[in-house]
Structures
1.
Amino acid sequence: MTTHPDIAQLSFLVGTWEGEGVGIYPTIDDFSYREEIAFVAPPGKPFLKYTQMTWRAGDHPDAGAPLHTEAGFFRSGGTGRAEATMAQPTGIVEVYEGTVEGTSLRLRTITVERTSTAKEVLSVERNIDVDGDDLSYEMWMGAVGQPHQLHLKAKLRRS
Ligand code: HEM
C-alpha cells in the first residue's frame, strides 16, 4: 500500500532526522541540545506520525541528559494547507494550522490547552524548511508572560 494521496504534499518530511539546536528565552539560560525526530507515514493512512526526543548538549555539566520530548500527528488541510496536533509531557497540547509551500511548512497554533499546573503557553509557531536531506526549523512561542518570540532554532540531517 502506498502513501495516502492527502499527505503527498507533506511527504518531504518523512524519515528520521538527527541534529543540534539552540534554545533561548528571556526567562531562562540559553542552552544547546541534540535532537532526533521521526516522521512516519503509515501505509494508506492520511496522516504522518511525529515523535521527537532531545538531550542537553554543549559543555553543560548535564550534557547527555534527556531534555524535552513530544509527539503528534500532521495531516493535510487541503491543497497548500496543513494541520497538526502535538502533545507535550509538560501538560501542554497544541492544535496547529498553516501552510505548506514546496518543502516549507508554516504552522501556528489556533489553540493551546494546558493542565492546571502547566506553565502558561499562549501561542506557538513552527517553521520547518527541508532542502534535500537537510531540515531546519524555528519554534516561536508566547509564554510565561512574554511576547511571542524565538525559543528554538535547529538544523537536522536525514539519517
Ligand atoms: C526541542 C524542544 C525543546 C527543548 C530542548 C526545550 C528546552 C527547554 C529548556 C532547557 C528550558 C529551561 C528549563 C529551566 O530552566 O527550568 C525550557 C523552558 C521552557 N520551555 Fe522549552 N524546550 C523545547 C520545546 C518546548 C515547547 C514545544 C514548548 C511549548 C509548547 C516549550 C515551552 C517552554 C516553557 C513554557 C518554558 C519555561 C520558561 C520559563 O519558565 O521561564 N518548550 N525549554
2.
Amino acid sequence: MNVAMFGFLHESNTFLKAKTQYEDFRRVSLTRGSSMLERWSGARHELGGMIAGCAESALKIVGGMAGLALPSGTITAEAYERIATELIETLQEALPLDGLLVALHGATVSEHYPDADGELLRRIRQIVGPTLPMVVTLDLHANISPAMAKLSTALIVYRTNPHLDQFERGREAALLLRSILAGEVNPVQALCAPPLVLPISCQYTAEDPARQLYADLEKVLTWPGILSASVAMGFYFADVEEMGASFVAVADGDLALADRASRWMATRAWERRGCFDPRLPDAASAVKMAIHSRNQPVVLMDIGDNVGGGSPADSTILFQEILSQGGRNAMVILCDPDAVQNCVAAGVSNTVTLEVGGKSDNLHGEPVAVRGRIRSLSDGIFVERQVRHGGWGGGNQGITAVLETGEKHTVVLTSTRMAPMSLEQVISLGIHPEEKDILVVKGVVAPRPAYEPIAGELILVDTPGVTSNNPARFKFQHRRKPLYPLESDTPFSTLV
Ligand SMILES: [Zn+2]
C-alpha cells in the first residue's frame, strides 16, 4: 500500500505584530521526499511515529513534505501560498495513493485563512477526492474547526501537555490508516466544540483540572466501537472563530456513537468549567515568594513571555522585579541579538555595561541595565537526548553570551528565540542551573520535564505579555461569542 506523509506545523499567535515568513520554516525544517524521511526517522515526534508505524504495517511512504517553524505570528499570505503550493505539487507527484498521513498543528493562521489547517485539508481533498483515507494528527493546542473534522477521515490529538506522546500519536495514526486500508474498520468522527476557553496554567495534564479531561477520554476509549478519542485544549492566542476547547471521537461506522462520545466528554468538561481558574500570583508577589523560599532553586514560570506560545523571549518583567527586590543568584535567559553583538565586540572575560531585553515591543517590560563580566561566548548549539516537549532533540539559539553580575545573577543572552524545553540549553554553556536560587523560565507547562527534576519549588506567574494566562486580557475580534469564562452567563452549545 502506498501512502504519502505531510507535515505543516505552526502555532500562530495572532497578537504578535511580526508575521511568520517562508524563511522561518526553512530555517527550522522544510524537507521533502527522502530528506524528509531522513530528518524525521527516529524522532520523538508524530512524524517519527508515522514513519515507524508505516514500517511495521508494510505501508510504503512514497512521497511527502514536512515544514515546521517556531511558534510565532500569523503566517504571511505569500509564505502560506508558497508552502501550500509546494505541498500540493509534492502530493500530485506521489499519486496514485492508497492513503494519507498528515501532521498539522491545528492552531495555524495565515493572513488570508484564519483556519489555515482546514484550508490545507480542503486543497488536499481537491486533489485526492472526498473518500481517500486521510488520518490527521494535531497538537493538543489545536483550535479544531468543523471543516477540519469534515475533511479528515480521523483526527488524533496529542494527549499530554507537556507534549511527550507525539511519537505514539503518529504511530497510532499510521496503524489506524493500515486498519482502514485493510478493510478492518470504517472510521466516522464527531466533533463537539463547546464555548469553553481553558487558561493555559490549567492545561497541565498530570494534574487536575486537566487530568480529569483525559480520565474521561480514557473511559471513552473503552466503549465498544470507539477507535480513537481526543481532547484539544485550544489556543486562545489565535483570535479565530474556532478558538477554544474541543472534543473528538472516532467510531467504527457508527456516527451516533461518535457523536455521543464527543458530547459526553464535552459535557463533563463543561460541568467542571469553574475549576479552570486563571488566578495566579503577579510578578511582585511571586518574586517575593521566591526570595523567601527555602526550596531553591525556585522556578518562576514567566507565562506572559511563553516562547513556546510565540512570545519574543525578551521580557524583563521578572528580572526587573528580582533586581528591585534585591534578589540574588538568579538565572535569566533573554533573546537580545544587539546585546550579544556588544559582548562579542567586548570579548570574553571583559566587563560590560549593557541594556538587555525589553526591546521587541512595549508589552514585555523595559530594557534593564546590567553590568557584568562576560563569562563565555558560544555558538549556542546544544543537543538533548531525553524525551522533551515537542520532540525537541536540541536547538540552536544563535551566538550566545553569558554574563555574570556582581549580584551573582547569570544573564544568558541569545541571538534567536529559544523555548526552554531542555536544560542542555544552559548546561551546554557551562551553567549549573541547580546551583542558582531563582530560575526565570519563559513557559508554562512545556518546560516542566526539563526543570522539574532540579526545581525546589515551581511558581506559575501571571506576567503580562502576548501569551498572558488570563484570556480576559486579550482584545479579540474574531472569536465566537459568548465563550466561557469571557462571558460568564454563556450557555452550552457547540460550534458547527
Ligand atoms: Zn502544544
